[in-house]
Design a protein that fits this description.
With 499 residues, the chain is α/β, with parallel strands linked by helices. It has 2 domains: 5-242, 3-Layer(aba) Sandwich (Rossmann fold), CATH 3.40.50.300; 258-331 and 416-493, P-loop containing nucleotide triphosphate hydrolases (Rossmann fold), CATH 3.40.50. Strands 6-9-10-3-11-12 form a 6-stranded mixed sheet, sandwiched between helices. Strands 18-21-22-15-23-24 form a 6-stranded mixed sheet, with helices on both faces. Helix 5 (145-158) runs parallel beside helix 6 (175-190). The relative contact order is 0.11.
Length: 499
């Protein structure tokens, strides 16, 4: 092993139900480097990381860590050796303090009793070493998202981590919060801690990583120093397409037929005095910094939040007694950003997840028309190019991109008149994103109004016909997306109404 190598993976393979998901992987991670791991959903990134962290065993091959052969499928042993994975949900105890979360399961004791003073000093030193400033007595649920990230990092450092796997760590962070996280990662590098950084955000990878490893269909395509490869080359090796060809053509002129109007709509502590016309056949983007009311706006339109003042008019008539069921019955559908908790029945099959919203369509006196249900499900699987073993496969075992396609397939069996989507490309690879962009554009071309919350500036500019920018619960500007710049959107997202 190289002198500065910390982990060597040699000829590792892994199969599930006879299907190879990792094929003869060879990889070396160096001490103190930040290694980006990229690939489409289903490329094998999660499987590889779970093998490294001991969650999964592997079929064949060999893994060495600091010169010693690692056991298979032993997460406790991996943690003892200093290998940790920080999941997207961070795995924190929300009702405990920062210090309790850092120490959890490894409390410093003297004669069997927790030594609070020494524990506090240890936690403080860990945070000081990498530049984290947090109140050790703060309750985790009261922290911002990036602060919770820091707690998760401090916890693994307390456990003597040498190799940290970060799975989509910036998925819900604002630009400022991402900068804070990158500062912490750079501090970790100074302490010779190795980072495996998993992200679908190509710009971030080129900002933070030293090297990038590209996976495709379970194969290792290439490992390259970040300075020796371009963004387009990374994308092309991941999906076979370049960045410039990702977005479908936007409309030259925005349609002028209004399908829904919001007049002075307010929800206490959520959104304030919203005036907005939504046009039939357009893709309307809702932009702004994270947490500025974008999700609340969609929830209000759909009927999850109750309006305190103002009115919503739909197809020329006032929307009465708003509720999700009322909205669905009137052709207004909603896809939440929380795919796993709110959109999917994880323990159920792909078939059940697709057909659940339209079961009444298959009812007969003698029971469900199973043949009609199967035909509908199979047609949607083909239409959305959902990659599955079979329709009875549990949806929890699909990649994030295929899970999102299942959600879209469900709601598009019967076409809506107005389709609301909150971060539909969150945690999804570039190739699947392109499929979703094309699906949304096809809906708009059919005359369906699409309203989509997007935090990614490139997506806003590349996909949307108009962009409404929010700041502190208000819409500051509505732009026609023609020769529009990132600077104009950022100015409006910062509250500059006349930018």
């Amino acid at each position: 092993m190289q002198d500065n190598g910390i982990l060597r993976i040699n000829d590792v393979t892994k199969s599930f139900s006879g299907v190879k998901v990792l094929k003869n992987i060879d990889l070396i991670l160096l001490k103190g480097e930040t290694r980006a791991l990229v690939g489409e959903n289903g490329a094998g990134k999660s499987t590889l990381n779970k093998i490294i962290s001991g969650v999964y065993s592997y079929d064949s091959g060999r893994i060495e860590y600091k010169g010693e052969v690692l056991p298979k499928g032993n997460p406790i042993k991996m943690k003892e050796l200093g290998i940790f994975m920080i999941p997207q949900d961070l795995g924190l105890m929300q009702n405990l303090t920062v210090m309790q979360n850092i120490l959890l399961g490894r409390e410093y004791r003297k004669i069997g009793v927790i030594d609070l003073k020494t524990s506090r000093n240890i936690c403080k030193k860990i945070m000081d070493d990498i530049g984290i400033k947090l109140d050790l007595d703060a309750i985790v649920r009261d922290l911002s998202i990036d602060q919770r990230q820091f707690v998760a990092i401090a916890r693994v450092l307390y456990a003597n981590a040498d190799l940290i796997i970060m799975d989509e760590p910036t998925a819900t962070l604002s630009k400022g919060e991402v900068s804070n996280l990158f500062r912490i990662i750079n501090n970790l590098k100074q302490q010779d801690i190795t980072i495996v950084y998993v992200s679908h955000k190509i710009d971030e990878i080129f900002e933070i990583a030293d090297t990038v490893t590209i996976l495709k269909d379970g194969n290792l395509v290439e490992t390259s120093p970040i300075g020796d490869i371009s963004k387009n080359e990374v994308i092309n090796k991941m999906v076979g397409r370049t960045l410039s060809n990702v977005f479908p053509q936007r409309k030259v002129e925005v349609p002028d037929e209004v399908i829904m109007s919001l007049k002075g709509v307010s929800v206490k502590n959520k959104i304030e005095n919203i005036d907005l016309d939504i046009m039939k056949g357009e893709i309307l983007g809702i932009g702004g910094l994270v947490g500025m009311g974008q999700t609340s706006l969609l929830n209000t339109i759909f009927g999850i939040l109750r309006i305190d003042s103002g009115s919503i008019f739909y197809q020329g008539k006032k929307f009465q007694n708003l509720s999700p069921s009322y909205s669905i019955n009137h052709g207004v559908y909603y896809v939440s950003s929380d795919r796993e908790s709110e959109m999917l029945f994880s323990g159920r099959s792909v078939k059940e997840n697709i057909s659940i919203a339209t079961l009444q369509d298959y009812n007969r006196i003698i029971g469900l028309n199973k043949e009609k249900e199967m035909q509908t499900v199979d047609s949607k699987i083909d239409e959305f190019n959902i990659s599955i073993a079979n329709r009875d496969q549990e949806v929890q075992f699909l990649s994030g991109g295929n899970q999102q396609k299942v959600v879209l397939a469900r709601w598009l069996i019967n076409k809506p008149k107005l389709f609301l989507l909150d971060e539909p490309t969150h945690g999804i690879d570039v190739g699947t994103k392109e499929d979703i962009y094309n699906d949304l554009r096809s809906l708009a071309d059919e005359g369906i109004a699409v309203v989509v919350v997007l935090s990614d500036m490139i997506e806003l500019l590349g996909l949307c016909d108009r962009i409404a920018v929010m700041y502190e619960g208000r819409i500051t500007r509505i732009f026609k997306n023609k020769d529009l710049s990132e600077e104009e959107i950022m100015a409006a997202a910062s509250g500059q109404q006349n930018a």
